[in-house]
Amino acid sequence: MKNVIEVKHLSKSYKSHKAVDDLSFEVKEGEILGLLGPNGSGKTTTMNCILALLKYNEGEIKIFGKEMSPSAYDIKSKIGVVFQDVAVFDELTVYGNIDYFCGLYIQDKTVRAEYVEDALKLVGLTENKNQYPKQLSGGLLRRLNIACGIAHKPKLIFLDEPTVAVDPQSRNNILEGIKKLRDGGATIIYTTHYMEEVEILCDRVIILDKGKIIASGTNDELKALAKIEEKVTIEVSELSPSQLSGFESIKNVSEVSYDNGVMKVVFNKGKNNLADMVDYLKDNKIQYSKIFAERPTLNDVFLELTGKELRD
Amino acid sequence: MTVSKAFWKIVLKNISTIIMYTVILVSFGTVSAQSSTTTVEFEAVEPSIVVFNHDGEEGITKNLIEYLDKNAEIKTGFSDDDKLKDALFYEEVVLVVDIPENYSKDYLAGKNPEILTRSSAGYRAELAKVMLRRYLSVAQSYSTLGLDASETTEKINAALESSAKVEVLSKVDSSKYAKASAYFSFANYAILACVITIICLIMSSFNRMEIRKRNLVSSVAISKMNRILLRNSCLYAFGVWLMYMIFGYFMAGGDILFSNYGILFAVNSFIFCIVATTIAYLISQLVQGRNAVNGIMNVVALGSSFLCGSFVPLEFLPESVKFIAHALPSFYYIDSNYKIQALEGFSLDEIAPVLINMGIMLGFAILFVILANIIAKKKQRVA
Fold it and tell me: For A88, A129, B125, B225, which has the most beta carbons within 10 A of its beta carbon?
């Protein structure tokens, strides 16, 4: 697959603060690339540099094989952007807003009307099309924000934290909509600090911290970077101190905690961890009600790499 | 097309604001039209006076009474002094002339006898006093010539009959144009309010950081978008001007608006609309948001209207206020309206003061555009 975006040695500083530090990556055609990182990690700055909204100090940015610049209107015509802050006109209706932003790209009225209807359907706002933004809930407003950014059916879409402060129903609707866009052939750059969304949506992930790439790859590749293999949770009503200390003797166990009848055991890389755990419970006649194991998350990877939580 | 469509949709969304300021202007125009029905007809006024003659009906006394009777209305029946005081208070009588005993005899003897008077307040009393003084000063000049009574009265009458010939040089009924002047002067407020509010609200919508970013990443060049916005802003201001001209036609009268005076009023207000548009353009670079726009609009529109004589005629404003007003374009617009109203002809010399004011207004417009562009460029650099 060919590269849609190529970023080489991108650096951007605000006075002495380096917001983006020697970033290099590429985005393949048709993939969803997640830019994951805590607030202030440089995700939005990187996106703004790529979109030529910000001047950068060093580096090279190519989109569709051409150098990106503020006057590269042929490139811009193939791009759609959904910014973190809702960018709509309060004086225009839902339909009017989508029609305006779509009209900046599509001149043909008939085609545009079709595209606007498609966008309304995609984000589930058909019934609200005659309402004004102030009449919409926060979630619906976010959906309108997305519709305004993607109505012209762009080949490359930038989504900057589109699900911040939305209700679960709207979030599911938005994520479903993004999947449909990818299925329609669009390449998507998705910035977020919600690891769950990245795990659901993204084909590839770049983890940023302090303006630098600290890891990149597919979900599985990133999780493979974690030292831990799995986290086992067991609901145990009674546990003696000797039984508790006995857990640490199980092979590959790295961490044991017990609180309010819930026991958590973290295993390092190794085989048959869960089976060994069950054997220990049986051998020591420890009664338990529930037991389940979890794979490490991207948050665990981030925690191991940076020593802090993603949402810090 | 898309940008223009959005522009006019936002204008329509704010139509209530336009209607509100137009209603204010039309209401003022109606009130002004009703209160400006002045006339240029003149009528001689005969003040009411009372004469107490203690001298008799002969000689110079007889002649004085005949003169007073000719120029004033002599009332009788005021023997009661209290009744006379009431009549003076209520201005039923404005002057009481008390001719002393032996007045005529003492006059001919060159003794310069004194006539006592009492008067009410007001201009009619002053008029009566002037009339009496005129007789007495003429009579005094003949008192020392040693003439007899008939010769003296003859000479006094001859002198009093000669009067200065007054020629009315101006036949312009300026009150006819006062309505138009008042309407267009008040339009200063309505034009500023309508143009600044709407254009600033639209520009602040388009200049909102989030919208601006979305426009910047689109395939339409931002310079082209700005040109479209500016063109539509000018078109809107032209629409406001045209609407106020149509209302002006009904308020001030079509015969005035289709005269040379009307053309000058129209050109003056059109130039002021251009200035108002540039003020709006400058303000939109400085502030954003409905509340901020309304606040600034009130300061600019109300402030300049008060200072420059839109609500109160310029001649009633203190000199210090007029001095400050010179720094505002509204002053030159309103001053031009007064100057147009008072024009006697339309030669270049006569309309030069109006043209100078228009030039100053256009100078302000250029200054505001330069300032707005400097601010806009500074903002771009910050981004």
Answer: A88
